[in-house]
Write a structure and sequence with these properties.
Blueprint: H1 3-29, H2 38-66, H3 71-97
Helix pairs in contact: 1-2, 2-3
């Protein structure tokens, strides 16, 4: 994928984080706002997905700036590490929300 496409996804993930994070904060801090079941689970999984992409892409960009000759290896390592971390966190979210 081209770098410009990855950065557009990075910016889109930031917007998704704002929306889903706001829903999460409102659900937990506004009395009487009840969101339960699959709708809240989907919101949290989208939140975790956007958070993981945004964080891992940020780390990837920083590492590529530091070591530009290793960009392909860095990208693959971050991808594999991101998938492993995402699966662990998604499993945790599913267990906690249910």
């Amino acid at each position: 994928m081209r770098e410009s496409s990855l950065m557009m996804l990075h910016y889109a993930a930031a917007v998704v984080l704002l929306v889903t994070g706001s829903i999460h904060l409102m659900k937990n801090n506004i009395p009487g706002m009840e969101i339960h079941g699959p709708l809240y689970l989907v919101n949290m999984l989208i939140f975790v997905s956007a958070l993981m992409y945004h964080a891992m892409n940020g780390v990837r960009v920083i590492l590529i700036e530091l070591m530009p000759k290793r960009s392909r290896a860095i990208s693959y390592i971050i991808l594999v590490l991101g998938i492993i971390i995402y699966l662990y966190i998604a499993n945790l979210v599913i267990a906690l929300v249910r």
